Request: fold
Amino acid sequence: MASGTELRALRKDRREVPVEVSLSPVQLDEGLLIASAIRDVTERKKLEEKLQEKERLADMGTIAAIFAHEVANPLNGIYTTMEFIKELVPAENQNLIAGLSTEFDRLRSMLDQFRSLSRLSDLKMELVDFAKIVGHVVKMNSPSG
Reply:
């Protein structure tokens, strides 16, 4: 049997599952016999898939961090140049600079959101009482405070 060949087997419930088959020669007085072991590797396959997904996500986080860094440097240069030009542009054209500034802020915000992708692993998830939080927000924003 070829090594590394993906084999499938049918369980009693007629479900198809991935298996590994091991063959071992056994020499007896009567002659050579082949002992066979068949293992259901469904759980191992699931774990391997989870590991691959985690590795892919880790790679994406690394790429996101590199990309954000590489984009941030020229973006900062553009911002500095824009601030310098703002002083030189006549008052009647300041609206053009204001439009650039708005778009720059939008890009910076998007970049910050993108950077946060690489920091998601730091989140600590916990259950909260959502109704209590909403009640607190409503109370804080009511006229009586």
